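Running this now, will post back.
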Amino acid sequence: MPTTRLHRGRLLDHILLVVQDLDAARDFYTVVLAVLEIPVVDTDDGYFWADELVVSPAESPAALGVLTGRHHLAFQAKDRETVDAFHRAVLAHGGRDNGAPGERAYHPGYYAAFVLDPDGNNIEAVYHGEGRRNVPSVTIDF
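Update: finished.
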């Protein structure tokens, strides 16, 4: 029996985005998450997921025909170069800029870039500066 490994943070188990065009969303998030080294997994049930993010169309049973609206999602980047690569990759694949890479005033060392996904969600890649995690993530094996 194969083992499935999920990586989870501490606050959220998952986020569901219900989108107008699943193919456009898949194309967008495949580019974004490849830069962040997070695989996108397609399912036979008409949605895809990547760690804590689940994306489905309005026709899915979980969506009940309702789009989720506009959200802000911030993905963690391992360094400034990854934030820069995230921004370049999205723009090179037709994405929309919502804030070029750079320092932000949120706290010292906060380096981020912002883009809009096909549904207008504000998607961020952020590097919080030098620091060390006690563990890279919580893993769940089953």
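The mean pLDDT is 88. More later if anyone needs it.
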